[in-house]
Design a protein that fits this description.
mainly alpha, Rossmann fold, 4 strands, globular, DHC, P-loop_NTPase, Dynein heavy chain, dynein light intermediate chain binding
């Protein structure tokens, strides 16, 4: 094979991939020996990478409106996360989580928290079953002061049941202003129709025929009141139902 081409591809891949931990920029000389054989690449030990974290949860107990993004040492961040974990485990109605927050877990929680804190943040957690994806997401959501909601599967659970669950979430977010993380795992995607609904939620926030006439009437009336109270009457035509519903949908997506 062409060593120079291999060097070019490896250099680009390893220098841009997250978490490779290489000490120096790659080039042909550091990839190949004089005889053309690939060298053994040296990696930075993980504890050298475990230096600092960036997030808006660094002041434990600070209300959401007073939070700012700041950088702290990783050890400080780890201790803060243990405080949040202790708080989570003392809250009523929540199953206690006994977590060991090792370096990778702290970094993972930090990434999840940043995404959830961003505008319309959505994420796909990929990993083997039992690796703690749901637990770490629940902790990150708690750190961001978000409630975690999911669906409860039952025999015969289908798209109609999913729509009922989503309707309830939309009402909480759009009309009550609650901050919610909608957590789903692969076992809950019981049909292609539900997967398509999730795709629509992510893309536009709208599922066709989700609300009946009674629900729509409540949404329009309550949202009109919110528009006037929040001072958006000059930006949203309260007499136009489509505009009012779009405002409602935007509120849901922002939550």
């Amino acid at each position: 094979f062409d060593n120079e081409q291999v060097a070019k591809v490896l250099t680009e891949a390893l220098n841009t991939a997250p978490g490779t931990g290489l000490k120096k920029a790659l080039n042909y000389e550091c990839l190949f020996e004089d005889d053309g054989q690939l060298k053994q690449l040296e990696e930075v030990p993980k504890n050298e990478e475990f230096v600092s974290m960036w997030g808006n949860y660094m002041k434990f107990g600070a209300p959401q409106e007073e939070r700012v993004f700041e950088t702290k040492e990783a050890k400080f961040t780890q201790n803060i996360m243990y405080q949040y974990l202790e708080q989570y485990n003392t809250e009523s109605g929540k199953q206690k989580m006994n977590l060991v927050l090792f370096e990778d877990a702290v970094q993972y929680i930090n990434k999840i928290a940043r995404i959830l804190s961003s505008e319309r943040g959505n994420l796909l957690n990929v990993g083997v079953g039992g690796s703690g994806r749901k637990s770490l997401t629940k902790l990150a959501a708690s750190m961001c002061e978000y409630q975690v909601e999911s669906i409860q599967l039952k025999k015969g659970y289908g798209q109609a049941d999913f729509h009922a669950d989503v309707r309830e979430l939309y009402m909480k977010c759009g009309l009550k202003g609650e901050n919610i993380v909608f957590l789903l795992d692969e076992s809950q995607l019981v049909s292609d129709a539900i997967l398509e609904d999730i795709n629509n939620i992510l893309n536009s926030g709208i599922i066709s025929n989700l609300f009946d006439v009674k629900d729509m009437e409540k949404i329009i009336n309550d949202t009109r009141t919110q528009i006037n109270e929040l001072g958006f009457a000059d930006e949203v035509d309260v007499n136009n139902k489509a505009s009012v519903f779009n405002f409602f949908t935007s509120k849901v997506r922002d939550r």
